[in-house]
Structures are given as structure tokens and as C-alpha cells.
UniProtKB/TrEMBL annotation:
Protein name as annotated: PucR C-terminal helix-turn-helix domain-containing protein
One Pfam match: HTH_30
Domain called PucR C-terminal helix-turn-helix: residue spans: 297-354
Highest taxon of source: Bacteria
Length: 379
């Protein structure tokens, strides 16, 4: 049990964090095992580190954070292997980025520390158990897979030296273990992992597999497929983001006539990946909607979005003058303190309106990693 300096440095080389964030991995005594600070001058003092460790050890939570007057936050997280405390993870950077990325980074680090990369066990594994471990480890791998993972891929007749696809299947009903897609390996060169009873992940390398998946999906399923790539973790996130964006942003196209690929929604991903508090915007819209005049402004903007931002068709639909329409949009911009002429902010309000009217919106990355985290606890 424990984490070596080599393992700690390998963790920081995974490129799963924002460049603006500074990460430090400590042993249980507070000694630095690895850090990505460029200079010693920016690092926390030993006294500050010990104070943070004392704080988190006394907390009922497994992490605590402190903020300074410069808009930065330091978050300290406890690291465990099974039930044993093996160290701490420090994340420092702009408050918004730390709050947005902390849970994702901690999830990846803990899964890295608790995963079975050597695929050894005191108890013999069934082929399904071995396959599940392999797929889960593959989805955690960004680049340069470990030799043991390559060996395991060879066992399953997958060449992970070349790019692969990752597909995520969301079903409205539990996916039975007798389903052909769950038993993908029996028919084509691919592997599957059931993250939840209605969420199935597939990894495969051929276009023939896409045709096979399409032929066996049923009316309960929606499918998102990544681009073909060697960054397996990114491919997994692409697949999750694709299916979630499909359901949130374009529910009318949520048909079962085709498999939806990542490229269809790639232009919208910065809005999802950006650490923007959509919930606050939804609450603001809900409050504004209680006032009749403000309700009219929201109603007008919704029609503008449905008309792809075109002024004249929207004014015609609402039977108002174009100048009146422009005035209403400017008024809503002031109320929201946003520039609704800007594409990214306009679409952000669209997402918030969708959530307010219909859907619950969760970060695609957050949902993806929570699924993997839950699965890791069951292994």
C-alpha cells in the first residue's frame, strides 16, 4: 500500500487537469512526492501544508478548501487505497476552475490509485470480470498505456496501439446480460462494460462493429459514439457528451434510426466543458418569469432562438415590430447581465431555458466520471 514518487509523478503526467491549476501530491506526513509547480517560490510552505492537513483530518469531509483575496482557492483532498490513508492531493488555482475541476481530478486520481493495472488477483477472474477490469482501465487511460494494459488488450484481440471507438448506450430499460450488445465479444472484435443497469460502454476498432451495433439496438436505446482516437479517456468522454447533448439540446432528433457521432455536436462542447454555473442562470430565469413583463421578454427570446436568431421571422411570428423585438432582447440582456448578441452566451441561455422548461442538466464530464467511479466501487 502507498504511493511512490514515481507513481505520483506519473499521475501528474496524465494531462487531466487545466493548465492554470497547480497540483501537488503529498505523502501521509505532508512530504511532497510530486508537483507541477514551475518554481519553488510558488509552493506552499511546510507550515501551510501541515495546517491544511490538520484541517482536513479534523473535517468530516474528505476534502476542504480555503480561498484568498486574489480569487484563488487551495483544495486539499485525502487519498486512500481501500481504507488506508496514503497521502493528500493539493489543487491550487483560480477559484472557479478549482471548484469546477476538483471532483473530476480527485475521481481520476483515486481510480488510478485503486485500480488493478497489473491484472493480478489472489482469486482467478472469470473472462467477464477480466474484461470489465480491462475496459474500465482503458477508459481511464489518456495516452501511452502501460505495458500490462497492452498485454491485456492482446489477450482480448484488441490493438490499442491504433485508434479505437468508444460507444455509450443509454437505455430507458435495464440492458439484459443476454443482449447481443452486452455480449459484443462473441460476435465482433470488441469489449463491453455495463456501468449501470441501463448504461453500457463498448470499445471496438472496426466500422463493421458500428453496423453491428446499429443492427442490434432497440427502441429503448440512444447511442453516442466517439471519434476514433488513441486517447481512450477522451474518447469515452466524447461518447458520453454526444449522447447527453443529443438528449438535452435536440430532443426532436432523439430517434433510433441512426447512431449519433461526436462530430455532430462538437461545436457545442465548449459550452458544456466550460465551468459555467448554469443553475444560477436557471434560477434567475425562474425568478424573472414570475413577472409578466419579464415573462414576455423570455418568451420573445425563446422564439428568437427557435428561429435561429433571425429578427424578421421572429417579429412576424409574435406580430410585433422589429424594433420592439430588438428592444426586448436588449432589455433581457441587461436583466441577465449578458451579451445576448454573442453566440456562446446566447446558446448558454438556450441551454438554461431547456433546463428550466424541461430537462435537468448535469456536466457531461461529471456524469461520465461518476459512472466510472460508481463502477470502480463494485469491482
Amino acid at each position: 500500500m502507498g504511493i511512490s514518487k514515481k507513481e505520483a509523478q506519473a499521475l501528474l503526467n496524465q494531462n487531466f487537469y487545466h493548465n492554470a491549476l497547480n497540483l501537488t501530491i503529498l505523502d501521509p506526513n505532508g512530504n511532497i512526492l510530486a508537483t507541477n509547480y514551475n518554481s519553488a517560490s510558488g509552493r506552499l510552505s511546510t507550515q501551510s501544508i501541515q495546517a491544511l492537513i490538520k484541517h482536513v483530518n479534523q473535517s468530516t469531509s474528505k476534502w476542504v478548501e480555503t480561498s484568498d483575496l486574489d480569487g484563488n482557492t487551495t483544495c486539499i483532498n485525502t487519498l486512500f487505497q481501500e481504507e488506508l490513508l496514503i497521502g493528500y492531493l493539493l489543487i491550487f488555482g483560480p477559484t472557479e476552475q478549482v471548484k469546477g475541476a476538483n471532483q473530476l481530478i480527485l475521481t481520476i486520481v483515486n481510480m488510478y490509485l485503486n485500480s488493478n493495472y497489473k491484472f493480478d488477483s489472489n482469486m482467478p477472474l472469470t473472462d467477464r470480470e477480466r474484461s470489465d477490469i480491462f475496459v474500465r482501465e482503458l477508459l481511464l487511460t489518456s495516452k501511452n498505456p502501460r505495458p500490462s494494459l497492452k498485454e491485456e488488450a492482446e489477450h482480448f484481440n484488441l490493438n490499442i496501439e491504433n485508434p479505437i471507438y468508444v460507444a455509450v448506450i443509454y437505455a430507458s430499460q435495464p440492458i439484459k446480460k443476454k443482449h447481443p450488445l452486452y455480449n459484443l465479444r462473441n460476435r465482433i472484435n470488441g469489449r463491453s462494460l455495463l456501468l449501470k443497469d441501463n448504461v453500457l460502454v463498448l470499445v471496438f476498432s472496426s466500422n463493421t462493429a458500428l453496423e453491428y451495433i446499429n443492427s442490434w439496438k432497440d427502441d429503448t436505446m440512444h447511442i453516442g459514439v466517439s471519434t476514433k482516437r488513441r486517447d481512450f479517456s477522451a474518447a469515452y468522454h466524447e461518447a458520453v457528451e454526444t449522447i447527453l447533448l443529443l438528449e438535452w439540446l435536440d430532443p426532436e432528433q432523439c430517434t433510433n434510426n441512426q447512431i449519433h457521432d461526436f462530430n455532430e455536436f462538437e461545436a457545442l462542447l465548449p459550452l458544456i466543458d466550460a465551468q459555467i454555473d448554469v443553475n444560477n442562470l436557471v434560477e434567475t430565469l425562474a425568478q424573472l418569469d414570475r413577472n409578466y413583463e419579464h415573462h414576455e421578454l423570455i418568451h420573445t427570446f425563446w422564439y428568437l432562438l427557435k428561429n435561429d436568431g433571425h429578427i424578421k421571422p421572429t417579429a412576424d411570428d409574435l406580430h410585433i415590430h422589429r424594433n420592439t423585438l430588438t428592444f426586448r432582447i436588449e432589455s433581457l440582456s441587461k436583466l441577465l447581465n449578458m451579451d445576448l448578441q454573442a453566440f456562446d452566451q446566447r446558446v448558454l441561455v438556450y441551454i438554461a431555458l431547456l433546463k428550466y422548461f424541461t430537462y435537468g442538466l448535469t456536466s457531461a464530464l461529471e456524469m461520465a466520471d461518476k459512472l466510472l467511479e460508481a463502477d470502480a466501487h463494485n469491482v
